[in-house]
């Protein structure tokens, strides 16, 4: 089954023939007139985001991939002007957010905005495999009795996002004016965002700057990679880091963002050889530093159990209030799992 979570370009509609046949169009792309012969599974990987070749091939095997209106095998070669469709046996998901009674940790709220401390494990926005239980569902419940706030109105709501397994602060706009004003601050890089992260390895320096374009990793489309700033691949990204505590084999750092790209800190830190501790997607869930003794291996396994996600927390968020013009600065306590893990590393460093 195709992963539809993000960036599906093209038509989201389906015609009567599709509906009557039991299949619904979820994606359509017309091959360029200069398109070179290319397998349809590879062709779709280029045009679809957040999916895998295995999923595309399974869709083809199930008869869900069509070329010019006819089902094709995964090995079908796409030709110029071919119309390629992804057809599924269910209507396209209507992105309507329904209220759900989910607790929210609201740090601040007024008539214009709301700042929320998101727990790890909560998806911010409904998407493939996570249509319910998201932070937006919880926000919809919070405003269910407020007719002035429509969670499905794109002109209000989330101004930015953080990953599912990252904890920390987010700002939500309650008016169109607030969202526009806050969105411009993020675009112009005038907001203040600081993250705390536990990374593998020690640093010879106390601070540093990472600059490198961030784009989708061609070897793993669920992961982002770092490319040269001079290249035309990916989007420009800059991260500043500052050492807070050293534990020998790991280091607690503060990361300050100039830009806000997908997986920016995770990709940048991996790029310089310091993946986030316990970050499965970027290789931090392996023992990367330390002596491979049985005792040490058990210690690391216990650490992974305490915090089985990337050790990343959006600790500080600052911006100018869209109505009053006042500078607002918020800071949140580290999540409990991170606090326990850091205490464990502090004790380990003292003993060693």
Describe this structure in words.
This protein is α+β, with helices and mostly antiparallel strands and 352 residues long. It folds into 3 domains: 16-88, RNA-binding S4 domain (Structural Genomics Hypothetical 15.5 Kd Protein In mrcA-pckA Intergenic Region, Chain A); 106-187, Pseudouridine synthase (2-Layer Sandwich); 192-351, Pseudouridine synthase, CATH 3.30.2350. The chain has 8 helices and 18 strands. Strands 7, 8, 9, 10, 11, 12, 15, 16, 17 and 18 form a 10-stranded mixed β-sheet that branches. The termini are far apart. Residues 1-21 have low confidence and may be disordered.
SS summary, helix count? 8
- Rg, alpha carbons: 23 Å
Residue-averaged pLDDT, rounded?
Answer: 87
| Terminal-residue CA separation | 49 Å
The total tally of domains equals: 3
Characterize the largest beta sheet: strand count, sense, and whether it forms a barrel.
10 strands, mixed
Q: Spell the H/E element sequence.
A: HEEHHEEEEEEHEEHEEEEEEHHEEH
Instruction: Show unreliable segments.
Output: 1-21
Q: In the CATH hierarchy, what is the superfamily of the largest domain?
A: Pseudouridine synthase
Under the CATH scheme, the architecture of the largest domain is 2-Layer Sandwich
Question: What is the CATH C level class of the largest domain, in words?
Answer: Alpha Beta
| SS strand fraction | 25-35%
Please bin the fraction of helical residues: 10-25%
Give me the CATH fold name of the largest domain: Pseudouridine synthase
Overall morphology = globular
Number of strands: 18
The secondary structure category is alpha+beta
């Amino acid at each position: 089954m195709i992963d539809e979570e993000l960036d599906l370009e093209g038509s989201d509609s389906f015609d009567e023939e599709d509906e009557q046949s039991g299949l619904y169009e979820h994606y359509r792309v017309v091959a360029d007139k200069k398109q070179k012969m290319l397998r349809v599974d590879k062709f779709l990987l280029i045009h679809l985001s957040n999916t895998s070749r295995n999923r595309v091939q399974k869709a083809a095997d199930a008869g869900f991939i069509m070329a010019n209106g006819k089902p094709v095998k995964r090995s079908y070669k796409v030709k110029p002007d071919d119309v390629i469709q992804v057809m599924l046996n269910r209507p396209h998901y209507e992105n309507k957010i329904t209220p759900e009674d989910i607790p929210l940790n609201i740090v601040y709220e007024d008539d214009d905005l709301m700042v929320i401390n998101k727990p790890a494990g909560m998806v911010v926005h409904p998407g493939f495999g996570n249509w319910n239980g998201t932070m937006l569902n919880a926000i919809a419940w919070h405003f269910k009795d407020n007719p002035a706030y429509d969670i499905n109105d794109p002109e209000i709501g989330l101004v930015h996002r953080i990953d599912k397994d990252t904890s920390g602060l987010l700002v939500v706009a309650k008016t169109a004016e607030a969202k526009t004003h806050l969105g411009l601050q993020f675009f112009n890089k005038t907001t203040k965002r600081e993250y705390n992260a536990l990374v593998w390895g020690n640093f010879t320096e106390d601070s540093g700057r990472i600059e490198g374009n961030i784009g989708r990793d061609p070897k793993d489309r669920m992961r982002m990679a770092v490319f040269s700033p001079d290249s035309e691949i990916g989007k420009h990204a800059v991260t500043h880091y500052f050492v807070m505590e050293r534990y020998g084999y790991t280091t607690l750092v503060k990361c300050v963002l100039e830009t806000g790209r997908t997986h920016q800190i995770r990709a940048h830190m991996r790029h310089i050889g310091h993946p986030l501790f316990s970050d499965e997607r970027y290789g931090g869930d392996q023992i990367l530093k330390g002596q491979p003794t049985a005792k040490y291996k058990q210690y690391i396994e216990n650490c992974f159990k305490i915090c089985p996600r990337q050790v990343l927390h959006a600790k500080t968020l600052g911006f100018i209030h869209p109505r009053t013009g006042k500078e607002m600065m918020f800071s949140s306590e580290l999540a409990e799992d991170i606090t326990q893990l850091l205490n464990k590393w502090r004790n380990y460093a003292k003993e060693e």
